[in-house]
Structures are given as structure tokens and as C-alpha cells.
Amino acid sequence: MIEELKVLLLVAIRNLALHKVKTLVVGGILLVGSFLVVFGLSLLGSIENTMSQSIIGSVAGHLQVYSSNARDELALFGSGFFGRDDLGEIEKFEDVKAELLNHPNVADVVPLGFENAFLGRGNLLDDLFERFRATVKAGAESDTLAMVETIKTNLKTVRADLENELKISSIPEDIKKQIADVEEALSENFWSKLPTDPESVLLFLESKIAPLSGEKEPLYLRYMGTNPEQFTQVFRKFKIVSGENIPPGERGILLSQRIYETQIKNIVARGFDNLRKGTVEQRKKISDDVALRTIASDLPKQYLETLVYLNGEQRKEVSSSLKEFLKTDENDIEALMKNFLTVDDSNFSMRYDFFYKIIASKIRLYPFKVGDTINLRSYTRSGFLKTVPLKIYGTYQFSGLESSDLAGVFNFVDMVSYRELYGRMSSEGQKELEELRKEVDLKPVEGASLEDALFGSETALETRSADSTSQDSSSTATRVLEFKRLQTGSYNPKDLNTGMVINASILLKNPRLLATTRAELEQRLSAANMQLKVVDWKQASGTLGQLVTVIRAVLLIAVGIILIVAMAIINNAIMMTTLERTREIGTLRAIGAQRNFILRMFFVETLTIAVLATFLGSLLAGILVAFLGVRGIASPSDFVSFLFGGPRLYPSLSPTVALAAPCVVALLALIFTLYPAFMASRIAPAAAMQDRE
Amino acid sequence: MSVVLKGVIKDYPLGASMVRALRGIDLTISEGEFTTIAGPSGCGKSTLLNLIGCMDVATSGTVSIEGKVTNALSDKEQTTLRLNTLGFIFQSFNLVPVLSVYQNVELPLLLQGGLSAGERSKRISELLEQVGLTNKAKNRSHELSGGQRQRVAIARALVTQPKIVLADEPTANLDSETGKNIIELMRTLNSKQKTTFIFSSHDPKVIEHARRIVRLQDGRVIEDVRK
């Protein structure tokens, strides 16, 4: 047996050496196939691993629980930004948490709920006129005059826009009237009234002119209600960047550092930041890269976004600095600023430095800062627009995922404010309502009381928000702040963990038991008569979680197609050599070789080349993966860095894949040898008599 | 009796019609005989040898090898018979090109199994000496002349010590001198080991070396003479 195998192996090797082209083609195909499978799967495995850490470590946890009455599937990272998913509600979080914690593998349960809100950002002219009013009130003539100039420049832009609009408008009468208003505001006659009758000037500007510039795009914020303290403890990647976490019992919001920097920051500064990222970090050229070129060409158009923030003194300062910097005789600050903002590869880094050194300190880089209060607006479940004032306690990021838009998509608010925006009452609110009822001696009646509660809650909350918006929170003294807390900001910290939530993250002690724990938890919950479902992080993250699965399927299908084509080639190649070797095979049969022997001969031949080629392919893939594991693969985009769990992916080889993949490919090759080998074994011994050498 | 053929008829399909290659052959070949099947090409020599060599089955009549009727044997049994009882020498030598002289001769022993490497080596060395190729043991077949290749083939045919050696035109691809040598070698081995040799030929010079000449024509035995 062993002797026979020796001969078979010898015949195989000799034959492989004899048919060099065939051997090289077949071997090459098998090598590449095995290489692709091992390399691709190792890379995907690594990505899945890092991605799971990103997803699990940022918000998802290992498992998510939500109502089984949900009409949509939970998609933490979005199923579409504006789509408002119906995820149902978890009525009593405290009960669910207690039930879940009974399971020995559950480490913690974090309440969540997410929703979209928007922040109106007013318009540029509103902003300008508001500050103009303040300047006029302050009474410094030079400042006022400087602002008048700025206003006039803005008005010219507005007039130009309107004139363009007139050409295409279907209501030319209205537009003509608006142009007349702007002309009026531009006239010397109009401004001559300023010293004597400032109020009429201001009113005209605010009421007639301001609406013409249109609203700035509102800022959309995705927010996540949770128990901030617990969240920080559970999700270790979560780091406060500036300010502090929302204290227990306080209303507030933590802004994503990423959103703060890339959506909230002054648009000119953002332009500079993005260009710097592109040119310095990614080493691209503005002239070569379409995206960078667009940012650069937009920059001069935003010049007003710097000038409006400057007062008279600052305008002079900036103007002379710019004159010196640009080495020009130009005196007009607008021309200077436009010139300055016209950047290219040669001057960008100097101008970046100048911008941050001279200009940035004088303008308002962020419309709101840590410590400010913003009004978060959102639609309640019943469709009312609800506004809740929230103090910005700080900004946060997930370490390793600083540059990822996905990880930074959420802004965190306390669960109590979340419920309020959702249209639910806090226990405080309910108590308040009770007291109100007592005061007006309202006896709740079954059924009707429901309606009352609804209306009651709305009114109560409306009053609350009106209260706090009127307060200027940025510069209030501690005492006043304390007072405010008592009045509107605070709540019973216990409320964070009791009452309604939308979903909850479940953290496991042993993540390896994820699948079984998930099933067990679902069983427990249904046994406890709770209408809830438990999904794993992959499912919970929406399309994102399935991404790797999809990529892997695509890769395997692609490799599968390549391999099947390859196998057809192999099949053909073996068929050809079989034909060539008919007499040899006939001879072997004639001198006493059984059909089996011929089969084995072909199998050994395929196996020899297949094992050599596939394991070499696997080895090469392993070496490449090991090399990349040390060097890392730079993430090409912010999205990919979320998948990579950081700016670079350090892939590692899966030993199972490295061994199994070549075996599978070799097995496939063997299967495709079956037919030609079978045909060969059917060659009649008399074929030995065929008289040709 | 080594080989017994009784009323053997063999038809071959040729396109849509059948061609009758053998038209009723009765032939008995005893152990140790040195027999030539002679006749012009197309007379049925090869067909007859194929039937004796268990590579083909008669349309009717029986073929017995060493007392065993081969008609009903399965492919596997036929193969075993070829391996153990028969030896083959081909017109075109038919050595396995990728193997050395030694390995070619060793191949049937490996197919048989049972002998140790030492025993095989001993037997192969003896045979190579008898055919005069001891110093070519490690060469590959393409490095040998035609005569040398046929000697290797003879050694391979004899290595399993078969009862019967069948040779289909063993000298057709050789010049007459070499051919003569090959026939003499076969003759020597035949007389030494009492192996039955049956070979086909149409060459009168080769035929005259045989002890028994069976002439075929149009699928029939027309002459059967013993010298």
C-alpha cells in the first residue's frame, strides 16, 4: 500500500514536472484562490472583530431589548436619518431590568431611547441685526458705523440674490417690492434717521429685511436618552472631552465632540479644519482632490461669516493685519477677507496659521459652548412640537473612534428629558398634575381622566420650557443656578431607571455565551409575560451590523465564481492530459493495474499540486496579514475607521481559516478531478495497442 | 494446457455494420510453447492476442487461460489475471515515460504487492542482467534505444513470473538485427523458465525463429505447424 503510494506520488510528481504549463496554470489558480480566501476572510474577520468592539463598546452592548410590539426593527445606527422608527415602548424599565439581572450572565442593563431633534439656527441677518441693536444701544459711534458698512454689504448681496430671483420668479410683484425695501435700506436717507430715530431703523431692518435672507439650515441632532452616570461606567470607550458628565438628577445634554467640531463650529473655521485634515493628515493636494477643491472654492463665499462677528476696533485690527499679511494696498476689508480666504496648495498652511492666530480669537467659533443652554426641539409621539431647554454639560467622544461620524452620531440627554421630548410625563410632572387637580378640585373619572392627563401634561410642560428659555443661563451665578435647578432642571435621580424607555443595552459577563444568553433571556421575559424581544448587537445596529456579513457573502460568492471557473480550467487541463496519456493508461491497465489504481493516480496528482499550491497561497496570505498586522491598514475614510475601530486596522490571521481554506480549495480541485479521472479509469487496456509513440 | 480457444468468434462494430474479425478459432497452446501467430495485417492477429490477453471478450466460443474460462470474468478479475498470469510486450514498448528503467520493471510487482523491497530488488536485478541492462537501471526510457526499450519491456513482462507472455508484433518497430536479438532473448528466456510465449508477427525472418507457427487469414487458422 505504502509502496504503491510511493509510486503514485512519484508518477504524480514526474507527470507534474513533465506538463509544466498545465501544472503552473492549475497550481497558480489554486494558489490565488486559496490566497484570496485566506486573506479576504482574515481581513473580514478582523474587521468584524473591531467593528463589533466599536458597536458593542459605544452604545449597543451585547444585546438589545425592546418591545415586541415594535413595527420597525431596532436600528441603532440608523435605518435612514429622518425615518422615525416605531420601536414601541418598554413601560416599566425597572421591572425589565430586574428580570434581566436575574440571569447569571447579565452584567448590566442600560436604559436607552433615541430620537431626532433639530436646533433652529436663525439667519445671518437676524444675528447681525440683533448685534446691531446691541451696538446701537451701547452707543459707540465708530462701532456703529462699522456695522452699518457690514450691513450695507450684506444688503447688496441680498439685492443681487433678489434680482436673480426676479428673472425666474412667478410672483415678480412681490420680489419687486422686496427689492424696493432693500433699496430703501441702502439709501443714505434711511441711515440718516439712525441718530434721531434708531428704533424705526432697527424695526424696519428686523421686520422687513431680516426675513429676506432666509433661515439658515437647521441643525439636526440625533439624541439618545439614557442614565448618563451608568452609561459612562458601562461603556468604557465613552470619554468626556470637555466639561463634565450630566450629574444625576439634572437635565442636560452631552454633545458629540465630532458633531460639535464638524457641524456646529463656525463654517469658515470648519473649512480651514477640513482643508488641513485633507492636506496635512491625508497628504492630498487641494488642486487634485475634488472634495478639497470644493471646500476651497466655497471658502471665499463665506467671508461674511467672519466679518459679522467683528466690531469696529476689531475690523481695523484685522484689516491692517490682513493688509500686511497679504502685502497689498487694498483697504476694503471685504475684499481683503475674500482675498485671504482664496486658498491654494501654496498658501494654505500660512493662512491656516494666520486664521487661528489672528481671526479665530475675535469671532464666535461656536454658536454655543459648554455651559450654555440650548433648546432642543422634537416632535412628540403624538405629533406635537416640543421644546426642552437643556444645559450643555460637556462634549464626549468614544476613544479610538474620535473621527467616526457613526460613533459620534448621538448626543446624550438624561432619560427624563428624553421622555419629556417623547411626550411622557416625569413623576414630578405627574405629582404636579395631581396637585393641580386637587387645587381645582377635579375628580378624575375613568376614561375622561385619560384625556385630562394628556392635556394637563402638555400645558404643564409648555409652561416649564417657557420659564427656562427666558433665562440667560450662560452667566448666572451659582446661587441663581441652584435656584433654577430646583425650579426646572432637576428631578428625582431614581426616575432615570424607572418608567418608560424605548430600548435597553444588555452587557454580558461572558460575551461568548451571547447566543444562548439571548435565547434564555427571551424565554425568561416571555415567561414573565413581558412583551419584549432581545436581539444581538449585529441585528440591533441595523444595516451596519450586517455589513460584514454581506461583504463576506459577496467575497465568498466572488471567490466561488473564480474557483468554479478555475475548476473548469483544471477539469479541462486534466481531460487534455488524459487524452494524451491514453496509451500509457491502457498499458497500465494491460499489465494489471485496476481501475482504482488509475483513479488514485489522478487523485494523487491533483492532490499533490493542490496541497502544495493552496498551502503556499495560505502561507503567503498569512505572511501578508502578519505584515499588515504590524504595519496596520490606514482607514481611507471616517466611516471605515468606525469599522476598523480606529484610524488603522491591524488584521490578524485566523488559524482556522488559514488551515480550512486551503483544504476546501484542494477538496474542490479533487472533486473536479473526479470526472476526468473516472473517464481515464474507463480507458480499455487494449488502448495500449494503439500504435503511436 | 496453457491456452485453449474453442469456436471463438469475434465481431467488431464498424460504423453501423459489424465486422467479423475472427470466424471460429479452435486453438490449443501448451505450457512452455514458443508460438507465433503469423499472417498479414488485418487477419485478426491482434484480436486473437487481445482475447488471449483478457483485454477483450469473444462474441461467442470460449477462451480458457490456465484452465480458467475468461469470457465471464469481471473487469477486476480479468485485470487480476493479467497481472498475475500474463505478461505483455508491446509493439511500441509502452514504457511509462516518467519512470526509470528500474521503476518500470518494478511497477507490476508494486501492483501485485507482497514482495519486500529487497526481494523486488533481487528479482529486478536478475532480470535486468538477463536482458543486459544492469547499467541502465536508472535511465529514463527516452534515453534508451528501441532495442533497449524492448528489453526493458521484456523484463517488465517477466518480473511477475507469469505463465504466459503475450507479445504483439514485438519487433515491428525495430531494425531486423535488433529484432532478431530480441526474439533470441525471448527464446532463451522461454527455454530457461518454461514460460509460454505467444507473439504475433508478419515478418518472415522473425517467424522462422518460432517453434510453432499458427497462420491466420481472414479470421481463420489456415496453417498450424510445429518445428
- Number of distinct beta strands of chain A: 12
Oligomeric state of this protein: heterodimer
CATH class of chain B: Alpha Beta
Shape of chain B: globular
Strand-pairing-aware structural class of chain A: alpha+beta
- Radius of gyration of chain A (CA) equals 36 Å
Globally, the shape of chain A reads: elongated
Cα(first) to Cα(last) distance of chain B is 19 Å
Question: What is the helix fraction of residues of chain A, given as a range?
Answer: 55-70%
Mean pLDDT of chain B: 90
- The low-pLDDT segments of chain B are none
Number of helices of chain B: 7
Structure report:
- Chain A is of the alpha+beta class and 693 residues long.
- Chain A contains 27 helices and twelve strands.
- Chain A is elongated.
- Chain B has one domain (3-226): Rossmann fold (3-Layer(aba) Sandwich), CATH 3.40.50.
- Chain B has helices at 45-52, 75-84, 101-112, 117-130, 146-158, 176-193, 204-207; strands at 3-14, 17-29, 34-38, 60-65, 68-69, 86-89, 164-168, 196-201, 212-217, 220-226.
- Chain B has a six-stranded mixed β-sheet, with helices on both faces. In chain B, strands 2-1-4-5 form a four-stranded antiparallel β-sheet.
- In chain B, strand 4 and strand 5 form a beta hairpin.
- In chain B, helix 3 runs parallel beside helix 5 (146-158).
- The longest helix of chain B has 18 residues, at 176-193.
- Chain B is globular, with a radius of gyration of 17 Å.
- The mean pLDDT of chain B is 90.
- Chain A binds chain B through residues 1, 3-4, 7, 10-11, 14-15, 17-18, 583-584, 587-595, 597, 684-686, 688-689, 691-693, and chain B through 46, 50, 53, 55-56, 75-76, 79-80, 82-84, 86-88, 90-92, 94, 96-99, 103, 106-108, 110-113, 117, 156-157, 160, 168.
